[in-house]
Amino acid sequence: MKTTILRRAILAGAIATSSVIGITAATPAHAQFGGIVYDPTNYAQNVLTAARSLQQVNNQIQQIQQQATSLINEARNLASLPFNSLQQLQQQVQRTQQLLGEAQRIAYDVQNVQQVFSSRYKGAALTGTHAQMVANANARWEDSVGAFEDALRVQAGVVGNIDGARTTMDGLVSSSQSATGALQAAQAGNQLLALQSQQLADLTALLAAQGRAQALDSARNAAVEAESRERLRRFLTPRTGYQPGNARMFHD
Predict the structure, then answer these.
(1) What is the pLDDT at residue 27?
(2) How many helical (H) and strand (E) elements, i.e. helices and strands, does the chain have?
(3) Which of 56, 139, 183, 240 is most exposed, with minimal Cβ within 10 Å?
(4) Which of 69-73, 159-163, 211-215, 244-248 has the lowest average pLDDT?
(5) Do 131 and 232 fall within a single domain?
């Protein structure tokens, strides 16, 4: 503000001096006031030179301010987001994985599934002795019950993660809205994508647990039908009837 006022005063003085020069053009340059020689033309040139110098200084000040503003904006764009939800999201995924790893009787493993099905759901498991068939039927029932229990536990874990996901989402949205630079906005967006990935992982685990339970129950029903056919076949198979023989009632 002070610089602007000074510049305006100098320019006004220059205009006034030019006017005086125009009016008093006939005034000799060697007029003296108290022994000092006053040259109006020289004075006007000096005022104009000072005004130009002041304008150059103002231009330099504006350039410096623009450079400072640019540096401040660059610093904001490079600032990291103060909110980090990665650890919390990883913990939620680990809890879901732990629930899947605690699956009863039949694990989420291809070799284990093949081994169990070979021993309880098909082949010789359905055509063994009566005691073996009863034991396998009981084992299949336990498989189904355990699978449904596992599905319920995974469901409970996924529901428990909802509150944590809500808290994380609130923090990320708040951080995104108050981001001061491009890097903070990008990091907030990346963490929101990570939250969606965590929720998709929970949904995948839930579908896998439910599908496992339904598949085992369907396999158990199929095994029951196969066993029923085997028992009917054995019942209808002709057997050796009663063969008469000699009986001794008393010993000699």
Answers:
(1) 45
(2) 6, 2
(3) 240
(4) 244-248
(5) yes
Tokens in use for 174?
């708040």
Residue linked to tokens 């034991």: 135
Residues listed for the chain: 252
Say if 246 falls within a structural domain. Answer: no
The candidate with the shortest Cα–Cα distance to 101, out of 162, 153, 161, 175, is 153
pTM over 0.85: no
* CB-based contacts of 31, cutoff 8 Å, min separation 6: 37, 38
* Cα dihedral 122/125/129/134 (nearest 10): -100
The residue type of 176 is S
Chain segment 129-149, per-residue pLDDT in tens: 888 888 999 999 999 999 999
Tokens of 44: 């006007």
What pLDDT, on the 0 to 100 scale, is given for residue 33? 47
99 lies in a domain? yes
Beta bridge partners of 13: none
Range of the domain at 57: 2-78
Q: Let me know: does 207 contact 216? Beta carbons within 8 Å.
A: no
| Mean pLDDT, residues 199-215 taken together | 93
Choose among 173, 209, 109: nearest CA to 117: 109
Both structure tokens of 150: 């596992």
